[in-house]
Specification:
Blueprint (H helix, E strand, L loop, with lengths): L14 H96 L16 H11 L29
Amino acid sequence: MERIYCNNCEDDGSEEEEQEEYSKNCTKIFKDIQLKVAAIPGFKKQLDSITQNLSMLTDKYDTLILHEQSKVKIHKLEKTVADVNNEYVYLQKQNTALEQKLHQFEQVSRKHNIEIVGVEQLPGENLTEIVSKIGDIINVSSSNIEWTRRTFASIPQPRHNSRIFG
């Protein structure tokens, strides 16, 4: 039986030619695969390099984050120091004002005090009675005396005369 082909479907050749062409195509594909497989170690080196660079960038990023966090902490501490310094200045002014008020109160309270010097101390003396007698002598009423006390003067140190013996 003879085959009849249409114009579009002519038999081009034999089965051997098809086998040969198939073999050439397989060889070509095999060589392409070998080339691509041979390129894998280069890609591995590039991938290792990228991994190493990414690790280094991660470390730098972490350092940068820590640096930024440190800047924030430093800024907060500087603000705290400024606040503490302002509070210190305020408290110093308050202390000075209180010292001045205390001094004024002390001066006002001493306004009604009198100091008498040179009265010899006697055993068993009544100090209020002595002050009343002094008030009578200088024509000052002693009826408003609330309290009296004796203060002890510091004992003067004797002077040493320097003598040069020769």
